[in-house]
Fold:
Amino acid sequence: MNLQERISAFAALGSRIREILEGKNATPAAEALAALIEREHQFNPWFTEENIRHALQAWAAALAKENLEKWTARYDLSREPLKTVAVIMAGNLPLVGFHDFLSVLLSGNRIVMKLSSDDKHLMPALAALLTEIEPRFDQHIRIAAGKLEKMDAVIATGSNNSMRYFEYYFSKYPHIIRGNRNSAAVLSGKETEEELAALSEDIFRYYGLGCRSVSKLFVPQGYDFGVFFRSVFPWGERLMNSNKYMNNYDYNKAVYMLNKVPLLDNNFLLLKEDIGLASPAAVLFYEYYGSEEELRQRLRSDASRMQCLVAPQKIGPLEPVAFGQTQCPALWDYADGMDTLAFLAKLPA
Structure:
């Protein structure tokens, strides 16, 4: 397959996903994915039908042919022969490993997927849908059941602890190793309720479990959280209907109360003043800032640990993301700022 044929196949995959979301399941692979959308929460309670649909809708939009062509035009993806790339996937969000899957195959290489036990059904279902569209991809996709072997390069995503093991075990291969990152938002106190309602999508989508989920607020001294709480209130019902989420809320609240930690609480979200970036599930950290220069220096010190910064304008080293947009990255918005396609395009012959 040449690049244009690969682009056409993935563009067709985006169209097929849209059809499935609309209830048009005309093929066996489409029927299988549609069934998974409805029942995957039985295997992983975090993977609700709503969140799986959200992830699929985002990918269906991203896989538009013009997006794929714009993205790949920056690279020389004509290199031969094909390389085998092992991809160790995280499982914190539905289809969180799909960008690596897309990058490896679109670059003309073969993929060996090491799936997370938390997301072991959705990726194979999408792979089956892709090979149904373009059968030649079948020879380029393999799922590793045991030890990874016979690969030319590695892309691995995990925690900061697992990152150290990955770097040790895969040091002899060309590799991309990713650890934990978090996202934050800067508020001025002048935001409208509509802007804060959009921010709640950045905070609560996927229950706040992703690296693009806002887990920290930077707010000015004297900030009034009343408007913030009113704006995020519409998320309350769906969050309180999640046993997994509310178990985390109850546990964290009990621990903080036992330790007499001051909290702001609206019965489904705990706000805790904390200099950290990575807040637990159902908890949002906040930190006060004084001057804009003080904030800029603070953001500069955290830049290497931050995936996204929601802000009305550029105030630190990261490009700002608009309210409500952290969970809608473009194809060229790379995790940890590591250009996956450039890495794949330059693998040694």
The chain is about 40% helix and 15% strand. The CA atoms of residues 156 and 177 lie 5 Å apart.
